[in-house]
Amino acid sequence: MRIDPLAPPAGTVRDWLDHHAAHQGDRICYLFAETGDRLTWAELRDLAADIAARLTGLGLQPGESIAQMLPNGREAVLCLMGGLYGGFRVTAINLVAGADAIAYALDHSQARFAFVGAAQRPLFDQAGLAAIVALPVDGRVSWPVGSRAGALHDISPGDDALLMYTSGTTGRPKGVVHSQASLLAGGWTTTLAHDLSASDRALCILPVYHINGLCVTVIAPLVSGGSVAMCSRFSASRFWDQMAAMQATWFSAVPTIISHLLHGENGPSAETRARVRFARSASSALAVEVQRAFENRFEIPIVETMGLTETAAQILSNPLPPGLRKIGSPGIAFGNQVAIIGPDLSPLALGETGEIAVSGPNVMREYLKNPEATAETFTPDGWLRTGDLGRQDADGYVFVTGRLKELIIKGGENIAPREIDEVLYSHKQVVEAAAFARPCTRYGERVEAAVRLADGATVTTDELVRICEDRLGSFKCPDMIHVLDELPKGPSGKIQRLKLAELTDA
Q1: What is the DSSP letter of 495?
Q2: pTM for the full model?
Q3: What are the backbone dihedrals phi and psi of residue 137, each rounded to the nearest 5 degrees, phi first?
Q4: Least confident stretch, 262-271, 308-317, 351-360, 495-504
Q5: Whole-angstrom Cα distance, residue 317 to residue 326?
Q6: Nearest Cα to 414, choosing from 433, 384, 441, 435?
Q7: Confidence band of 303 (pLDDT split at 50, 70, 90)
Q8: Distance CA 278, CA 275 (A)
Q9: Which of the residues 340, 351, 456, 485 has an alpha carbon 20 to 30 A from that of 126?
Q10: Helix and strand tally (H, E) in the chain?
Q11: Order of strands across the sheet with 332-333?
């Protein structure tokens, strides 16, 4: 099975695991940083097939949900691949979403069984859903007494494969459904953009219950035939040592992680600098000043990208060096099509600002049991509306200006929070920054911002306000800047801007 730059991968996850087991079965595909455990392609396929057969023996039907409440590690990989190999809909539960959201996802998914880690058992029990049977996982799955393996179901590319709930800031989470085909296409877009091969090794530091960690650093190596070094969680103090020990050639992160690495004391060895081809930034906009400072300090290029849960991660990416990277843009489309549309959903001219829409094989099937939200998300001709605002230049590069729901509307004028973020990040003592709207009687909304400062920082909020006023003018300048120990984040590390007004309310 070869990678075709013009067509998404054929077949299913089962087909790709079988292929790698047959053609490079002795080759290592997974290493686990904390335990030193390793898996070859043959071992991964055999263990996944066993889990799939045991699930079938429990009576699970093709496309039926099997929930997974596991942190990054060997067990998470095996249970994920086992569910996909068997043709079931793996329901990835966000472990930091909170008890209410977890209970909702378990109930809404209609899962009858769940893989649950020992540390996650209290969260599972708190959901109080007696209809779901836990399959405890602590080194190996504890199957019900008397259960037996069953004959595997026939599966096809169009069958459901993944259910992942969005971490929305308003209302109930929506369950994004991906097929075997769209899940593989998500790994394919990453493989194309970054020219991944069997010789590449990703360091997975993002949780696999988030679309970035799952599709970019798990499914992409499945498509490319490369390998994955997986960490249980990101650690700024251990990161560069892990990159060296695991012999990784690339990693995917989010802007907050990149900023923490930039402000850390440690750095890569000369050998690591030479081996690492690129760092990848996704999930939210990377501040221009942070990208430049990171590259200047560590001599590792950052490839900025953009993706969604609904598109199995990546839709845009900058090309690898020596290709043209446009700092401040998440790049061009790889493996799908991107357009900028207006309020009437028709395409806009180059340079005009509108909503970013995407079409391609990596787009989700639907929101589970939510036809109204599904219909609202797709245009009549099948383009998925991302909710992000941006413009496209003559070279096809997209520049994101903000989120429709996050725009600050002051006195009837739209202000993109990212403009303010960029200015705040330009100060070397600012580690995290996010502007947000605060309701007010005079303008409807006013501008405020929250920052996390580096240890030992001396800059004052008054100084940061003056910098914003000098760069942006008084109208866009924050009326107040709050200093927090930590800004609220979702599971991928993306700052949850819409929570800041409530969090900083005096």
Answers
A1: B
A2: 0.88
A3: -125, 115
A4: 495-504
A5: 10
A6: 435
A7: very high
A8: 9
A9: 485
A10: 16, 25
A11: 38-40, 28-32, 227-230, 201-204, 250-253, 278-281, 302-308, 313-317, 332-333
